[in-house]
């Protein structure tokens, strides 16, 4: 779960859903038409054009446009890449103009298509009424099972409304000389040795409207050293929900907005009981799947809900060079489907920001307060923000202020500040510095934490085929209201080198160090990681990977060292 710094700008959490038609498609289509018209001679009949067969179309897509281009089992990574196939090589497939079953019965399927579309990726339902002007109600969500981004013409097997695809086949193996003690759990314990797999990715879809399908993706793995088969379904996990009511009005020079937004994220998984677990383990790694779909935040019975009511108003002032604004929000948080563990957050801000063009660094003055306990205590913060460009190649953002506590809570008075510098040194060198200290808020709980942080990274293109990146970061976290994140201090840094000696060859080297100081000394840890990786396209949609990795992990409990070697192949369809 992300911790984020509260922005004084209205940050309302509504995801824009924009369907954009690629300009390349339009340009390619117009170019083909112009070329065709230029070749016509008087008296000639118009060329009917060339439409590839389904088999030819598959070849025309190229290695970068396979239907299973994404890695993983989520609907977002395996359903999308069919789109580029429609315009591969500037050619359009021929579609039968005869209406199909769904088009002939569109009076029935159109409302169903509109209602279910809310629960597909990149779609939302917005309702507006002429009786209540400037008001809208938005419904958005995802079930993890519904999709629009599927091209039925490319399916390997078609049986009425059912479609089946083979997405990929692959194989791989690792060897590890793991030297340490593994945590005692129910999984097979192997200190070192080999593990291997052969895999098959498949997808089945059921067409329920003209453009909406129920989609289920599965990865089937055979584990030769264990002589077992593992099955894992990938769709149907973590369905989110958003309901939002908004009213906007213009009252004189004031722009006013009121909203009520309800959001939920759950660990609900419709296909969790369909998995068939089996693993082949070597050291800390295993191939296959375990019968467990949970994390520190989500389990199948857990859920996070938040309802936020807010009001914002702003108006131009001082000859339209400045803008005065204010905002107030009340957020209520719950856990589980029974809406337990209720907590709350109240927030208010008033600001004055520059919108003219005379001042090079646009200033923004603001005051805000926040309370997690129903106004028994308040955290106040005054701050000044400056945004601008120091030079042609140096962008700058900075904030400085002071925060103090009043009421029943312990006194937490401190200066708050942040700076973000992005500098393009040359055409081949860019670096960025981000640093600051302030208060950060949790997205789905009332947890609040104070933190100091600094990050630096520099990217260097050495040659057209060789890139380097150096990065480092440090953060210090104070205790939080609910103490959801027990980590106190963390430092990390590393070096990454990427070399492309050939067009389809990618060599990467990585050195990384990480040190974490937890709430107790026994949990403090440090880690060194070295990795060398070769990625090679071996043929049409066939990619191979070979890697070596050394890791050294130091902690009071379960320290280890490990040399790891792995190889894998995957052929996409």
Explained architecture:
The chain is globular. Mean pLDDT is 77; it is low at 1-95. The two termini are 34 Å apart. With 573 residues, the chain is mainly beta. Helix content is 8%, strand content 53%. It has a 27-stranded antiparallel sheet that branches. Strands 13-14 form a two-stranded antiparallel ribbon. It has helices at residues 23-39, 54-60, 75-78, 101-104, 106-116, and strands at 3-4, 125-128, 135-141, 146-147, 157-159, 162-176, 179-180, 193-207, 213-223, 228-233, 240-251, 254-266, 278-282, 285-289, 303-317, 322-335, 340-354, 362-371, 377-391, 394-407, 414-426, 429-442, 448-463, 466-477, 489-499, 505-517, 525-539, 542-555, 560-572.
Q: What's this, in brief?
A:
The chain is mostly beta strands and 573 residues long. Helices cover 8% and strands 53% of the residues. It has helices at 23-39, 54-60, 75-78, 101-104, 106-116, and strands at 3-4, 125-128, 135-141, 146-147, 157-159, 162-176, 179-180, 193-207, 213-223, 228-233, 240-251, 254-266, 278-282, 285-289, 303-317, 322-335, 340-354, 362-371, 377-391, 394-407, 414-426, 429-442, 448-463, 466-477, 489-499, 505-517, 525-539, 542-555, 560-572.
